[in-house]
Amino acid sequence: GLRSEGGEPLQLNALIAREIRNLAQMREKLDQGQHLEAVLKSGGVWAKRKPPVTQALKRLSSAELLDLELLLAGVDKTAKGQAAGDPWDGLCDCIAGLGGVDLGLAQSRH
Description:
Layout: H1 9-31, H2 36-42, H3 50-59, H4 62-79, H5 87-98
């Protein structure tokens, strides 16, 4: 994978964070009652990306997307040496969370 190929966790973290922010903005518009097609169009989602983006929007709540954003903030600190741990672990967790795996992050908000 990217790790074994010498990929940079900070760069990957930035890409994933941007996608999660976009999803969060679209999720908020859906929560406000806007129609899916209008949200996808305003989000600049290309035709080929519509199916996976739509699935993610149906699968993830605003709170779950916020949890993933917070997880990536921790990955950023870890990658910069400001916190202990392996940034790749956090990146893997985040990707799993985007895929619908329950990471138990909601419990950390309470």
